[in-house]
Fold this sequence. Notes:
Radius of gyration: 19 Å
Bound molecules: manganese (II) ion
CATH class of the largest domain: Alpha Beta
CATH superfamily of the largest domain: inorganic pyrophosphatase (n-terminal core)
CATH topology of the largest domain: inorganic pyrophosphatase (n-terminal core)
Number of helices: 13
CATH architecture of the largest domain: Alpha-Beta Complex
Mean pLDDT: 95
Number of strands: 11
Oligomer: single chain
Amino acid sequence: MNEPVKIKEAARMLRGMQDLLILTHKNPDGDTLGSGFALWAALRALGIRARVHNEGEFPAKYGFMTGPYFERAEEFEPRHIISVDTAAVKLMGEKTAAAYARRVELAIDHHGTNEQYALSLTVCDPGSASCCELIARLIDALGVRMDTYMANCIYTGLATDTGCFKYSNTTADSHLLAARLIGLGVDFAQLNRIFFETKSRGRIRLEQMALAGIEYAAGGKIAMITITQEMLKRAGCDHSDIEGVTPIPRTIEGVELGVTLRELENGNYKVSLRSFELDSAKLCALFGGGGHKRAAGFECSGTPHDIKAAVVAAAEAEMAK
Ligand SMILES: [Mn+2]
């Protein structure tokens, strides 16, 4: 953690705020939602009204976060806007960005590619495996005693962003925090079952289709899968069923770069890169995207064929260096 001073500054800012809207990124994952709901609960403990916002609906599997939230959340006209785990304005979603992007005062994030769009303060530590690790520090700086609800939220972000403590972004601090959270009563077996051991039947059908269409390039060093809207419909999947698909191509022996193309509702493609040695964030930057070194993405238009060809050309050029 390189930014203890900024965490304290963020805590000071939050203490002076009321009626906060916490923005999470679109197509939300465990880290952005865990960050948002843990922070909501901590602010609530201080008597600060807050709401967690997302462009779409909260996926059902996060019911343990959203259930208690919907029971207690109050209506108000937001006076302050902050964001969590959101590196770029466009990741907020169109409607959210149009309504709030220019008003974000504080951004808490762990993506090295954060666009620094926050007006007053950006707390960004790329050395943290998850944004939730920063939120845990922020909760401590706020002087709030972490309860089991907050601990469950934080654990979810920590576990999902580290691939259940498997990815190389996992640090000793990630494990120390996990130990602390387990001490606070986190039901880690149940959470890990939800996020790592359970797949819907629709998801299995989708994986079957995606793997049937797998393509290799660069002598087997690149593996690519494509998920179209038509496939989602046929499999009976929604967005929450897709989470965790992107690491699949990289699990194949000999593959150094896994590429997943996913057709969005507007016909564009979200392209997700997962690598070991290759710098995925650098590759994605060539296409206007960003992220982490081993996990990054971008959005573009075009046919899957042309997109794959462009990614392969860029990756091969990078591999040749
Ligand atoms: Mn994250």
